[in-house]
Amino acid sequence: MQFDPTNKVVKLCAEGMQYEAEGKTDEAHKLFQQAWDIAENDFEAFTVAHYLARNQKDPNDVLKWNLEAMNRANAIRDDDTKGHYPSLCLNVGKSYENLGNLKEANNYYQLAADYSTFLPPGKYGDMIRMGIGEGLKRTGTAKFKNDILDELIDGWCERKELKPLSLILPAYISNLGTENDLNKLISALSYLSATRCLDEEQQLIVDGLIAGLSGKD
Asked: Least C-beta-crowded within 10 Å: which of 44, 61, 180, 201?
């Protein structure tokens, strides 16, 4: 599923985004609506629905268009679509949250976390993962947390031990509790253990964490 910059629908959405950037939301909405009216397939409709959701004043309409975007993505049946699901689920979850339906919001935030394995590395992926984590927290599901590791990290921060912090913090902070995220954290802890840069007590704690998280204790 590739975005063709010469596609009429895509061009209208791009123009609408430009109006959005200039604060001209009404003009942007007209272009997005025009794009929706000429959309001929699920891919085009999926693209437009995403932008129409951003320009609604009624939160019920925001939810309607976010669900429409997800339904159209479901109909595409393309593996490339999977990379869009974390954002799609995040948007639907936020829509339900804004309407006060925290249970349904949490369900979609959880689904977004499950799809987070398809996020690309970099700023975009980090932003979406952060949004998912905050959504889970607001709706009653905390991100992955380990008190022993928290204590280790606090100590490294106090002592300004940059090496263990640089190895562990990225994998810990972004951990949404998925199996993939857990494996990343175990890998980071295993690499830290292999460097033998910790004192004996910390080394034993880290090795114990690896065993516990791996289910080998």
From this structure: 201
CB-based contacts of 65, cutoff 8 Å, min separation 6? 49, 50, 52, 53, 56
Torsion angle, alpha carbons of 205, 206, 210, 213, to 10? 60
Tokens of 129: 């993962």
> Position 41: which residue type?
N
Distances (CA, A) of 79 to 38, 69, 74, 76, 107: 25, 16, 10, 9, 23
Specify the amino acid at residue 144.
Answer: F
CB of 108 closer than 8 Å to CB of 93: yes
- Express each pLDDT in 15-66 by its tens digit: 999 999 999 999 999 999 999 999 999 999 999 999 999 889 999 999 999 9
Write out the two tokens for 107: 């369900």
Could you tell me which of 61, 66, 40, 63 has the C-alpha nearest to residue 51? 66
Contact criterion met (CB below 8 Å) for 99 and 59: yes
String of DSSP letters for 159-210? TT-HHHHHHHHHHHHT--S-HHHHHHHHHHHHHHHHHT-S-HHHHHHHHHHH
Residue 173 burial by Cβ neighbours in a 10 Å radius (0-12, 13-18, 19+): middle
Q: How much of the chain exceeds pLDDT 70, in percent?
A: 97
